[in-house]
Amino acid sequence: MKKIISSMVLLTLGVLVVSFQQDKTVKESIARGKEAYALYCQNCHMEDGKGQEGVFPPLGKSDFMQRPIADLINIVLKGQSGAITVNGVSYNNIMPAQDYLTSEQIADILNYTRNSWGNRLKGMVTPEQVNHLRE
Q1: Rg from Cα positions in the chain
Q2: Residues near 113 by Cβ (< 8 Å), separated by ≥ 6?
């Protein structure tokens, strides 16, 4: 019985350590993403993530940001053209490909935007996911 309890305690501690490390990693990614966003995204989507209605869509409190992570990565890597609807407003502008950004920068920017301005989306974007879609 003591062996089972000891094993359960060790397993619980292991889960807590991994969970804490993931939280720390996400927070670090978000901090880096905020800096990269300011350099590469803010001109169009604005510092507050509200975009410019009818011209550049909002990222904050955005139904579009709830798309699958792979879709968001591909939009950053390959760009976006054609009509889209975000929060009920139509946008038909071109977002150029940002494939010159490193995989870490793309992951960090997406982690930042998915966790800012009212967005609280589960799942961390990783550089490995970006690399996979670059191929």
Answers
A1: 18
A2: 33, 37, 41, 49, 59, 65, 119
CA distance 100 to 106: 10
**Chain CA centroid to CA 96, Å:** 18
* Number of alpha carbons in the 13 Å side-chain half-sphere of residue 77: 18
User: Per-residue b/e over 11-50, b at no fewer than 16 CB within 10 Å?
Assistant: eeeeeeeeeeeeeeebeebbebbbebbeebbeeebbeebb
> Does the pTM of the predicted model rise above 0.90?
no
Distance from the Cα of residue 85 to its chain's centroid = 19
Q: Smallest Cα–Cα separation from 45: which of 91, 105, 100, 108?
A: 91
Per residue in 52-70, pLDDT (tens digit) is: 989 999 999 999 999 999 9
Are 56 and 36 in contact by the 8 Å Cβ rule? The answer is no
